[in-house]
Amino acid sequence: MAHTEFPTKATHAQTRAHNASLVLRAVYDLGPISRAEIARLTGLTRTSVGELVGELEHDGLAREVGRGPSTGGKQPTLISLIDDARHVVTLDLGERTFTAALLDLRGEVRERISRDLDGTDGDAALALVYDLVDELLARPHEPILGIGVGAPGIVDGQGTIRWAVNLSWTDLPLGSLLHARYGYPTIVANDSRAAALATFLFDGDDRPANLVAIKVGRGIGAGLVLDGELFRGDGDGAGEIGHIVVEPDGAECHCGRFGCLETIASAPAILRAAAAAGLPEQTLPGLAAAAADGDETALAVSRAAGRALGTAVANLIGILDVRDIVLHGSVTVLGEPWFDAIRDEATRRSLGPLARETRIVDGGTGEDLTLLGACALLLTRELGLTVHR
Amino acid sequence: MAHTEFPTKATHAQTRAHNASLVLRAVYDLGPISRAEIARLTGLTRTSVGELVGELEHDGLAREVGRGPSTGGKQPTLISLIDDARHVVTLDLGERTFTAALLDLRGEVRERISRDLDGTDGDAALALVYDLVDELLARPHEPILGIGVGAPGIVDGQGTIRWAVNLSWTDLPLGSLLHARYGYPTIVANDSRAAALATFLFDGDDRPANLVAIKVGRGIGAGLVLDGELFRGDGDGAGEIGHIVVEPDGAECHCGRFGCLETIASAPAILRAAAAAGLPEQTLPGLAAAAADGDETALAVSRAAGRALGTAVANLIGILDVRDIVLHGSVTVLGEPWFDAIRDEATRRSLGPLARETRIVDGGTGEDLTLLGACALLLTRELGLTVHR
User: How close A261 gets to chain B, by Cα (Å)?
Assistant: First the structure.
């Protein structure tokens, strides 16, 4: 028998929390805004709006910022969010350099520190996370709203990292550990997924319903925004395209298989291929410069990595028919030769009508995207806000 | 600036239509059911429920079917849906044999006719559609609620077939044509997507949130049910995996490219491979029988097709992390050797934790799935019902 769901009445407390959230959203999204306008938009009474705005002022989240144009009577007082009223601790654990930052309620970075992993993983990598947060919290900051983390690998809904291949983390309850140590609300999400959310949120008003953002750096992962929502999959592993095997007879991967996409198209794999081809460049910017100078070997290495990724993009197009694909991460510094190879291969391997409509966009190195996405997830869960500037 | 949406009041007509739909759903989902129980579930007054049930009886959609147990007072009269009160014309255009059928409100097939395409396509294939519907409507039937069509290829939200490779249809406004000719509400959807919806709806109460159903027959296409909804993609092409290129140097495809999945793993491709290998069998059941008798060549042909499909399944797992994958269509008669090859290849090419949780299930030849899915789409749009038995 199918489920037939019928609406139920809300309790008084639920109603009040809902109304408070409506007022905060109105101030966040539309401020500076008058109490009368908030009442008109939300359908709440002037009295209720006055009380709820009073609470926001009391909590230091909003303040009066002058008067707006009169609509007949006296000029209304305008209420504005205090962007810097709260700080969110954010972490990006997706690269060889871990980054921690304090972001405000608009996702602006207020403090940032980074530390290189220096080849460590496991417990040492976890200790580095603690060091970074300790150091960040030792700096001057506003009241902390919570901690938002973007971590590589498969991260479940409780903030446990089921498997992060490159960090040798298995079933690490990172969310619980951070909550226990610091006492703040904590959210842990897959880094590529957090970055995809940030890309989606800052795409402006004409944002597409669907967007895939692929992070190509130390690892390769995609975040899928489908019909406006982050898609997680059944086991929180949606978008883990870095470990799809593309060359069954290829190189061994950290995950234990052979020929995963990451063994060909990730930053370390590209640098290994460059070294194997006898190139002296040991960084991606160096490789990009050599290719720009016309070094055929450097060009060939860039293109080979691009083609492998293009095959994965063709699969994304064929399976999802998503038109907006953003590539970001350290490998994007390889520039046009790499992007052209991706676009060529994706087009060559896709059904014509689908491929013609696809936009494959350079999202840049995107250092802040994961931080911003982690912040956005926390603001949505804690305050019901959809982050924007 | 982000969109801030606030609820608005419904008009009286909207409210009445909504209430009528609630009552019909209650009778459809939970009948036989008393008026009192409907009132309790929907929150409507006894008077409103009485009026709305009266309308259903007047329209011949429901009737009184006796009395239920007393809950104190007199025994309540029970109302039940008349399953056969309306018929839906459904069409499956996805195989070499077109099928048309009359289905009742529970998706039971009441009449069915099939006709072979005999190699025709384009206008001749369209004429065959008209012939089938004409013939079906000449048979005794209940009032027709509408026409639901499952068609191969890329079908847009207006029922226009943008491109159906195997039928040589391009921008064919099939929905409008059928509506103009027969005057009934008409819905046209991709056949694999319709079949996926039907698979999902009949998976019972413990159905998963996500499900991929892959039709493997004359063509290959997947329907994606993500978070409980059919996912269409930006250009209505989601799930068109049959034209992802898997062997760039492979055989030419009807779509104009080379080495699409359909050139290796579809029914015609498998029979071509069997012939090329010198096998006398000219049908899939024949090939399956030869393999079951231990014919190594027949086994090899089945396994090669399975491995190609397994690669596509690995991509589905890696991108979507969907645990429930159902294969249906004429090729499923190849049985265990084919399924084993799919499972092996999908596992070999997927990240361990994801692959271990995946269930790849035999959905059978699934002749009725597309018909049932097309019927379900029409019932939802016209009556607000979620079809079930």
Answer: 10
